[in-house]
Specification:
Bound molecules: pyridoxal-5'-phosphate
Number of domains: 2
Shape: globular
Helix content: 25-40%
Low-confidence stretches: none
CATH class of the largest domain: Alpha Beta
CATH architecture of the largest domain: Alpha-Beta Barrel
Distance between the termini: 35 Å
Structural class: alpha+beta
Radius of gyration: 19 Å
Largest sheet: 9 strands, mixed
Order of helices and strands: EEHEEHHEEEHEEEEHEHEEEHE
Length: 298
């Protein structure tokens, strides 16, 4: 599913470093680390009137990603929350909003990889857009398993939520070429890792399964589903799972902040069962409880 430009986003204000700019003036330098090497970390956030879903967990993951990459001058959670609030208030936004929160290593004094060339401090970007859930969660999505493997820790730890997304973009291109909605990525051993932009779950014989977070982003929505299962006595198993196990599951779904919970109706041309009552129960529990995971900004 290809997202469309929303005219409501034509005149949005975007926060960069310490100020708000109208969309068409919201620019970063060609010397910024994001341009030079994808050297930035990011989070996707969803805003409801009750607040931002799992905000503290997102900010913790942003901090941990930045620390792993040895960023200096990392803004505090309070500073980030203030920047988000300023942006949402300036745009009159409080529902159906997705925020792309980016922390770049900042501007370099000259082009090059060396982080010692970054002498102006990090740069926070708050891009808030009117964006309802990106998938049609009633009809579901089709996926293609790709030849592009998802990074295991010996290559580039998938626990770092960084802007070097080419690994996933190549998988998405493969899915696009085949006319499917998303690329399903295996790990270096051939077990299912995740989709190019979301995590994956399957349901079989009364249990909910998801791959270990060895070669996937440990998604916050993934974590919320796990917490919901635990709270409702639904058996949840993290395991090494093969493509064949997903193809023959009683239900498969994707999880992520952009689309929340989305049934997967086809993998590599094989129709995936949607009969599982347990899967529908989990999808419903998520929908009914998600606003309880929202955290207000002040
Ligand atoms: C590769 C990848 N997997 C999974 C997810 C879902 O993570 P979350 O549930 O934290 O949005 C994302 C979201 O950014 C992602 O980029």
């Amino acid at each position: 599913m290809l997202q469309k430009a929303n005219p409501k986003n034509d005149d949005i204000q975007v926060y960069i470093k310490d100020k708000l700019y109208p969309r068409h003036q919201a620019k970063i330098s060609v010397f910024d680390s994001t341009v030079q090497g994808g050297d930035a970390v990011w989070e996707g956030l969803r805003v409801y009137p009750e607040g931002i879903v799992c905000l503290d967990k997102h900010l913790t993951r942003l901090h941990e990603s930045a620390k792993t990459l040895a960023f200096t001058d990392i803004p505090t959670k309070l500073q980030i929350k203030k920047a988000i609030k300023k942006t949402l208030d300036a745009n009159g936004m409080n529902d159906n909003i997705h925020i792309r929160l980016t922390l770049s290593r900042g501007e370099k004094i000259t082009s090059g990889m060396d982080p010692r060339l970054n002498q102006s401090g990090s740069c926070l970007i708050v891009l808030a857009e009117w964006k309802p859930l990106v998938y049609d969660n009633a009809s579901g999505i089709t996926v293609l398993s790709t030849s592009q493997r998802r990074n295991a820790p010996q290559f580039l730890d998938s626990k770092i939520h960084h802007n070097n997304l080419l690994n996933n973009i190549i998988a998405k291109i493969q899915a696009n070429v085949a006319g499917k909605d998303a690329g399903l990525m295996l790990d270096d051993r051939g077990f299912v890792a995740e989709l190019n932009g979301s995590n994956i779950f399957m349901v079989k014989q009364g249990k909910v399964f998801t791959p270990f977070a060895h070669a996937c982003l440990p998604g916050i929505t993934r974590n919320t589903v796990m917490e919901i299962c635990q709270a409702h006595d639904i058996p949840l198993v993290e395991a090494d799972l093969s493509l064949s196990e997903f193809i023959n599951a009683e239900g498969v779904f994707a999880t992520g902040t952009m689309g929340e919970l989305t049934p997967i109706v086809e993998i590599d041309g094989r129709e995936i069962s949607r009969e599982s009552d347990l899967m529908h129960h989990v999808l419903k529990l998520f929908k009914n409880n998600i606003r309880g995971f929202c955290e207000p900004l002040v």
